[in-house]
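Researcher: We plan to redesign the surface later, but first we want a full-length starting point. C-alpha cells attached.
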C-alpha cells in the first residue's frame, strides 16, 4: 500500500524516462518534439505533486478557524503558465519541422544534416 501512495512519483519517473529515451533514440523530428512534450508533462506532474500539502485547503481565511493549513496556489499558477508556454513552443517546433520538410523533403534529422554537409 505504501507504493500506491507514491503513484504520482512512479508516473513521473516513467514519463520522464519515456520522453528522454525517445528524444535520444529517434531521428524523426516530430517524434523528438512529442518526446519533449512528454518530458515536459512529467516535470509538470512532479512540480504539482511536490507542492501538495496533506490536509491543506484553499487559502481562504475563515472566521473562527485557527491553525488552518493552507496550500500555496503559486505552483499551480506557475504550471498553468508553463503549460501555455509549452504548447506555444511545441506549435513553433512543429511549424519549423513543416518548413524543414518543405525545404529538404524529409523530417529525419540525420538526412537533413547529411544534405547540409553535401551542399
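Model: Full-length starting sequence:
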Amino acid at each position: 500500500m505504501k507504493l500506491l501512495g507514491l503513484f504520482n512519483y512512479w508516473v513521473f519517473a516513467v514519463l520522464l524516462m519515456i520522453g528522454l529515451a525517445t528524444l535520444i533514440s529517434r531521428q524523426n523530428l516530430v517524434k523528438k518534439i512529442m518526446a519533449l512534450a512528454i518530458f515536459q508533462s512529467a516535470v509538470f506532474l512532479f512540480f504539482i505533486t511536490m507542492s501538495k500539502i496533506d490536509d491543506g485547503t484553499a487559502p481562504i481565511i475563515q472566521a473562527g478557524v485557527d491553525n488552518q493549513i493552507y496550500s500555496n496556489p503559486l505552483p499551480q499558477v506557475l504550471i498553468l503558465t508553463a503549460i501555455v508556454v509549452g504548447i506555444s513552443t511545441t506549435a513553433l517546433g512543429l511549424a519549423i519541422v513543416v518548413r524543414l520538410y518543405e525545404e529538404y523533403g524529409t523530417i529525419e534529422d540525420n538526412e537533413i544534416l547529411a544534405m547540409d554537409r553535401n551542399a
